[in-house]
Amino acid sequence: MAEKINLAEELKKHFGFDKFKGNQEAIIQNVLDGNDTFVLMPTGGGKSLCYQLPSLLMEGTAIVISPLIALMKNQVDAMRNFSEEDGVAHFINSSLNKGAIDQVKSDILSGKTKLLYVAPESLTKDENVEFLRTVKISFYAVDEAHCISEWGHDFRPEYRRIRPIINEIGKAPLIALTATATPKVQHDIQKNLGMVDAKVFKSSFNRPNLYYEVRPKTNNVDKDIIKFIKANSGKSGIIYCLSRKKVEELAEILQANGINARAYHAGMDSATRTQNQDDFLMEKVDVIVATIAFGMGIDKPDVRFVIHYDIPKSLEGYYQETGRAGRDGGEGLCITFYTNKDLQKLEKFMQGKPVAEQEIGKQLLQETAAYAESSICRRKTLLHYFGEEYTEDNCGNCDNCLNPKKQIEAQDSLCAVIEAILALKENFKADYVIDVLLGKETTEVLAHKHEDLEVFGSGMDQEDKYWNAVIRQALIAGYLSKEVENYGILKVTEEGRNFLKNPKSFKITEDNDFDEESEEAPMRGGASCAVDPVLYSMLKDLRKKLSKKLGVPPYVIFQDPSLEAMATIYPVTLEELQNIPGVGAGKAKRYGEEFCVLIKKHCDENEIERPEDLRVRTVANKSKLKVSIIQSIDRKVALDDIAVAKGIEFPELLDEIEAIVYSGTKLNIDYFLNEIMDEDHMQDIYDYFRESSTDRLEDAIEELGDDYTEDEIRLVRIKFISEMAN
Questions:
Q1: Superfamily in which the 7-202 domain is placed by CATH
Q2: pLDDT in tens, 555-581
Q3: H helices within 67-155, ranges in order?
Q4: CATH number listed for the domain at residues 210-401
């Protein structure tokens, strides 16, 4: 064998680091010795170095198979920074033209290129296979190797073809690397790559500096996020959403609230996408709102928070995405918003996929729900999922450990669960076992005749939520195990059987409650009284003065709920005024100036701190329905026809039109009124509103009498508000 290389010296020479992290040195030595190597290392552990350094020390070119174009570019740039020779690293993928590919090939053939990044799709192209057969290959590296497994969180069918292609190109040692893999996925990867005998290097998945918290997702989630970011202002953060539409909406809302945020998703044009990513890396932007496509291989060490707006589809995805926080070992806050409704949505998306895939997807979702709802240490749950035992009782850095719940004795309950699983011949999943315990006569239970079992109904004194908690915590304690390959069938372990013979204390904490009932009501104008009664009466006086001067009733200027909101939120600019219920751009421009001046003066004189963050600024969102109503009225479509076309009742249509004109948009419905109403009739109602001090419908109906229908009164009121107020 060749003389042993001093790896520490080479590390310093090529990368400028003084020492290796974790298992890096042993992994690199194993690659240099020509052995197959399997690396499980959490995000931020330094996986890339495990193939970058050996590629520089070995003869030939190393082929790195990687799933993302952005990731390749990132890594190639990084390698070129370490070396004086630009040709040292290259990538081949669909983004290169023919001339660029020829340049890459000539650098490889001249021996300059030590690292070649390829996407699996490019690797399978005949012309690339032909070319690579003529090249001396030092080794193959398969990055993000979890993409091979259907049980991983990012399955890519083309990854399944890597082994046959490697066999075609020519044999060389293989290193597979991933930041997340359950024992099941690990086995899958090794089997598929034909490297069952590889030496496995597994680092701990524990990231002690990351703080994990799950919050209930209420109607105020946008407000919560804005508050959180403002409390952490100037820090870098990533917010993950599942849909592109949500990404764009949320980025806009954050920008409207003075947060330096940008969107990132695969549907954007690539120039904007790359620009946003670079601005984030260069700290021109604080927050990126993204779909999961963002962040793979992005080496930004100081991301201080990762927020999940939507719960991810799997715990591997969650672990990988939260792992982008605090890679420098500093603070990393991982906040997730959870509601069970989101999981139901994700399950719906799976319909229509092959049954096996649906089953896998469902199981991964159940694991995520278990993590979110559980009130035991988040670290314990996560590490258990990745096949690692966490022995501390309290990690001191997750919401459940910082606010521990009271424990309850569940010895008898665990015995009941074990008895039920054994009575069911260890052949069913958790939800079925719970149905039997609760005595539910479901079609499946009746089909198996399990209603005749002695254990049927033995757990009726508790709810399914409680039994879920018992099963989850028994799995972590090692009394039960779950057969992953078999769609999550529950088995009783040796320890569990002993427990049934000699029961001992088994304490559990009940799951967190994420009931929909706890949702705060959205902020409504007018439901509450004004916070500042002095200001409220000053605003009413100003409105009265203006109403005299302009010759319009006071409510035409602003309605009471709008004044109440002003006396609560203290808007001092026209832009802020438009966030008040019932105040649109038109109204703000026409009447707003004097109100803003009054409010500002009142705040200054009384040293009032304005709760600016109290009201989240929404992006002017005229819902699709409102926009299309306005367009139809502009085209003079009869209102009853609009209601039919929109599939709504006529009074509902009037609700929508009223909302439009009350917030300051002018609508001309004369064409419709002239068709259906007598002119004198219309004038009577119009005069009533001009002289009345209120626009209340009940008062108008009472005053005008039976000669006028409610719809007629409402229609003329719309005309009046539109003409007088807007």
A1: P-loop containing nucleotide triphosphate hydrolases (3.40.50.300)
A2: 788 887 788 888 877 888 888 888 787
A3: 69-82, 98-109, 120-123, 126-132
A4: 3.40.50.300
